[in-house]
Amino acid sequence: MNVSFALDGLKGQVSKGSRAMRVNKEEVLEKIKFGNAVVINVLSKENFTKLHIEGSQNHPLKDDAKNFSKEVEEKYGKDKLFIVYGDHFGHLESFEATEALTAHGLEAFNYAGGVQEWFKAGYPVGGTEISGVGVV
């Protein structure tokens, strides 16, 4: 079961039993335009260098989710809105990172479509593969 909500002008859904709130690409783009969020890519530095959402920050999710959350808070502060993404639908890194940030008391949203959906939609990206080479 999914529950819809609106928070700080950001609509989304949360699955029952989960703390990870989801947003779509249009909502992410809106928050980027208004500077209301820190957008975090949780993939490896190598993958971030290849392709990432323009303006996003790379903070790879490692084995220790608590340490990940602590590092994010130390770097960006507690009073930010975080939008977390990975590669594409079906990969759990962004979901797990969003869950960890939320459990740590931070306001976090999961953009499950990831950089692949973002790129295919023609939204602003950076990286060495922006010509489309190697993009699934």
Question: Which tags fit this structure?
Answer:
disordered N terminus; single chain; alpha/beta; Oxidized Rhodanese, domain 1; globular; 7-stranded mixed sheet; 5 helices; 136 residues; 9 strands; two-stranded antiparallel sheet
Mean pLDDT: 84
CATH class: Alpha Beta
Strand order of the largest sheet: 1-2-3-8-7-4-6
Give the overall shape: globular
In total, the number of strands is 9
CATH superfamily: Rhodanese-like domain
Q: In DSSP terms, counting alpha (H) and pi (I) runs of 4 or more, how many helices?
A: 5
CATH topology-level name:
Oxidized Rhodanese, domain 1
Radius of gyration using CA atoms only: 14 Å
Order of helices and strands: EEEHEHEEHEHEHE
How many separate domains make up the residues? 1
Strand proportion: 25-35%
Instruction: Report on the biggest sheet.
Output: 7 strands, mixed
Terminal-residue CA separation: 30 Å
Q: What percent of the residues sit in helical stretches (DSSP H or I)?
A: 25-40%
Which structural class do the helices and strands define? alpha/beta
Level-2 CATH architecture: 3-Layer(aba) Sandwich
Question: Which quaternary structure do these chains form?
Answer: single chain
Which spans of ≥5 residues are poorly predicted at pLDDT below 50?
1-17
